[in-house]
Design a protein that fits this description.
Oligomer: single chain
Structural class: alpha/beta
Order of helices and strands: EEEHEHEHEEHEHEHEHEHEHEEH
Strand content: 15-25%
CATH topology of the largest domain: Rossmann fold
Length: 357
């Protein structure tokens, strides 16, 4: 692989993050997506196909991952002539298992490895080893430390965190007590997102009471939030990088007869449905959500295929997320679909019904 042009930083200011309206990409979200290329161009070395593609999924414990995997399989099916095998391994939320999984893919001599890391630092070395072996390595969704991989696709979590923090600070009038709920312990996405939010909170009178791992699982977040409610009599806002956590936290507040408060998150249908059901009786309920497209797997696979064919892609393909608030949520809510659906998706309703039953 060769890198052309001067490397630019991934972590631009939140003000520079152009937020793409989801409505503009409703029919074909990928075709209409705004993707910022950063870090120059990487050119692949053409390999004779068809190719063997490996996907190391850090875990598969929530509906976002289910939709992401479905989008990947759907895209792979559209490239049957180019793909000999799609080998999928599941790290089950265990960092060591994921590293072993990737080593196994290397030993199977796959041509490309797609990866959503459980830990951006833990997988960095094994992805470097794969890259040295001539394997195209494409981490996506959650960042990986360093640059010893071929290309990355996903949103910029630091900028997302800064934008979410700015929204929450404004919603609270620059003061108040909040709790935070993140994803898997030690994951790079929550760490980067929270770092951006803390930067946004500078100069405000917002007090962070606690920051907890909630695994991006609604039921687990409800339990975590119940403990926080018992510990803190005043909670004015809830910061989450995933709206599964936000939905579970809100349901915990309702169960404790506590008022709903401003929350942040992503494009989880459950939160939109909860708002539609409870907004009339909950005057303080507000939300600022930034989408995390489940079709990131499609961008990653397309990048791998382009490189294996000798083409070029950006070192980083930064997807600019949509922003959802009470002012526009009716454009995105899927009232007849399960809570677990993420609304920034390229999957049609029939596919979603098959996934969710």
């Amino acid at each position: 692989m060769t890198v052309k042009a001067t490397r630019r930083t991934m972590l631009a200011g939140a003000a520079a993050l152009a937020l793409a309206p989801l409505a503009a990409r409703a029919a074909d979200p990928i075709a209409n997506a705004k993707i910022t290329p950063l870090g120059g161009m990487v050119t692949g070395k053409q390999k004779k196909g068809p190719w063997r593609i490996g996907f190391s999924n850090g875990f598969s414990g929530n509906s976002w991952r289910a939709m992401c995997l479905a989008a990947l399989k759907q895209e792979a099916a559209a490239h049957k002539a180019q793909i000999a095998d799609l080998i999928i391994v599941d790290g089950q939320g265990d960092i060591t298992k994921q590293v072993n999984d990737i080593e196994g893919l290397i030993n199977q001599q796959v041509d490309a490895i797609l990866c959503i890391p459980n830990s951006g630092s833990a997988v960095a070395n094994v992805l470097r080893d794969a890259t040295k072996e001539g394997i195209v390595t494409v981490p996506f969704n959650l960042p990986v430390d360093g640059e010893a991989w071929t290309t990355y696709a996903g949103t910029d979590p630091t900028n997302k965190g800064m934008a979410l923090g700015q929204w929450l600070a404004k919603a609270l009038g620059g003061k108040g007590k909040i709790v935070g709920l993140g994803g898997l312990p030690g994951n790079s996405y929550t760490a980067a997102c929270w770092a951006g939010t803390k930067e946004a909170f500078k100069g405000t009178d917002i007090e962070v009471l606690a920051m907890k791992d909630a695994f991006w699982e609604e039921d687990r977040a409800k339990v975590v939030m119940a403990d926080l409610i018992a510990a803190y009599p005043q909670i004015d806002g809830i910061w989450c990088d995933g709206a599964q956590d936000a939905t579970g936290a809100c349901k915990a507040l309702l169960a404790a007869n506590r008022p709903l408060v401003p929350v942040t998150g992503d494009d989880y249908n459950g939160l939109l449905k909860l708002y539609a059901a409870d907004k009339a009786s909950q005057p303080k309920f507000d939300f600022g959500l930034m989408s995390e497209p489940t079709w990131e797997s499609v961008i990653a696979l397309r990048a791998a295929l382009t490189l294996l064919g000798g083409g070029s892609v950006a070192k980083r393909q930064i997807i600019q997320p949509g922003f959802i608030t009470p002012a526009n949520y009716r454009q995105y809510i899927k009232a007849d679909m399960p809570d677990g659906v993420f609304v920034d998706t390229n999957l049609d309703d029939a596919t979603l019904k098959r996934i969710f039953g």
